[in-house]
Amino acid sequence: MTVTGTDFVELDRIAVQEAVRVVDLATDADWTSDTPCAGWTLRRLVAHMTAQHLGFAAAARGAGQEPEHWREAEEMSAPAGAHRSAAASVLAAFAEPGVTAREFTLPNLGGVPGHRAVSFHFVDYVVHAWDVASALGVPVEFPEHVLVAALAVARAVPDDPGRRGPGFAFAPALEVPGGSGPLEEALRLLGRSPERWPARG
């Protein structure tokens, strides 16, 4: 699930910063909104994103096997601020020299080479940035090369029924119409339905 020679640290930085941008657009009235993640409100999605940032930051520093780093907060009085802080933590951890040569310990996967682990985080945050933007009815903004790289990773994600659906990162893959752009194709391969969540205005 990696693309040889791809700088996933830089791609991930762009994805995470876009996720921060769209989360920061949320108002108090938005936190109970539905999202493309079935059964999750925006508050629940952002709590998940925050925990994943902290978990990956810990994994980059050799502590990914400790469950408390991945635990989602039951209550966050300031979800956007907590997410912003966690995003800064993971970006700092991934920016450390040699991070992609380390082994990350990830939940349900065990030891994963750093380059691959960062690619996991990258594609997750392209998708989650879209999830948040869709819940808010605004467009997500990514350079074309970021979307092309995300699609390459999405194409390599196994469509194993035992690892897709409720409780997993992605739903079963959907059919991809001919002529789909890289973002739409990546979303569909990872179980999202873009046509159900059009941007407003």
Task: Please describe what this structure looks like.
A two-stranded antiparallel sheet has the order 1-2. Helices cover 47% and strands 4% of the residues. The model has no long low-confidence stretch (mean pLDDT 91). It has six helices and two strands, in the order αααββααα. The protein has a domain at 8-145: Four Helix Bundle (Hemerythrin (Met), subunit A), CATH 1.20.120.450.
Question: Brief overview, please?
Answer:
The protein is mostly helical and 201 residues long.
User: What is the SS-derived class?
Assistant: mainly alpha
Under CATH, the topology of one domain can be stated as Four Helix Bundle (Hemerythrin (Met), subunit A)
User: Over all CA atoms, what is the radius of gyration?
Assistant: 16 Å
3D shape: globular
Mean pLDDT: 91
By CATH, the architecture of one domain is named Up-down Bundle
N-to-C span: 36 Å
Q: What is the helix fraction of residues, given as a range?
A: 40-55%
Strand order of the largest sheet: 1-2
N to C succession of SSEs: HHHEEHHH
The description of the largest β-sheet is:
2 strands, antiparallel
- Residue runs with pLDDT of under 50 for 5 or more positions: none
The number of distinct helices, counting runs of at least 4 residues, comes to: 6
CATH-level-4 superfamily name of one domain: dinb family like domain
CATH level-1 class of one domain: Mainly Alpha
